[in-house]
Amino acid sequence: MTDEQILVPQDQYLKSGIHIGTKFKTKYMEPFIYKTRPDGLSVLNLQKIDERIKLAANMVSQYEPKDIMIVCRRENGWKAVRKFAELTGCNFYAGRYPPGTLTNPALKYFREIKLLLVTDAWPDRNAVMDAFKASIPVIGLCDTNNQSNYLDLVVPCNNKGKKSLGLFFWILAREYMTRRGLVQGEFDVSVDDFTEL
């Protein structure tokens, strides 16, 4: 891969640890695994990560901010998700997702959306199941130990690290805002704004 072909320079991907998986791997994630290190950690394929982030950016860019919801139960992603929502205006839940949000119009917090993005399909499974019941497409960030049931688009990445989640949402924000014409010139928000130091 050359740096011109990918969304961010390869060393930026590597420094964030976006490619570092877990010691567990599922059959769902095998196509995205580059190798398993001697210490047992699986390493995700950077080229496939980059390709899937591009697909996710294309998909998300088709929707108005009000039609998108991001759900992140894992605390390491809260700052990144909040910053993405602040910049784009989309809906989000950083923390516990209230079941029925997408399926029960009687609830005061009911939302009608057209696309759901979850940072981890396991802790965010209530949101995934609600979206499935409501026929809403789901993009899921998946580490090597995830299953991909009910996900329409899998984005392989380290979905547990603050730096990797920060980089993912920074790229997604930049691509979304650029493609929708919300940014004039350079995207002047720093990756550091999406990560907690």
What CATH calls the topology of the domain at 10-15 and 52-179 is: Rossmann fold
Number of helices: 5
Strand content: 5-15%
CATH architecture of the domain at 10-15 and 52-179: 3-Layer(aba) Sandwich
CATH class of the domain at 10-15 and 52-179: Alpha Beta
How far apart the termini lie comes to 29 Å
Secondary structure category: alpha/beta
List SSEs in N-to-C order. Answer: HEEHEHEEHEEH
The coarse silhouette is: globular
Tell how many strands the DSSP assignment holds: 7
Keywords:
alpha/beta; Rossmann fold; about 200 residues; 7 strands; five-stranded parallel sheet; two-stranded antiparallel ribbon; globular
Task: Give a topology summary.
Blueprint: H1 10-16, E1 33-36, E2 42-44, H2 46-60, E3 68-72, H3 78-88, E4 91-94, E5 115-118, H4 125-133, E6 138-142, E7 153-156, H5 162-179
Parallel strand pairs: 3-4, 3-5, 5-6, 6-7
Antiparallel strand pairs: 1-2
Helix pairs in contact: 2-5, 3-5
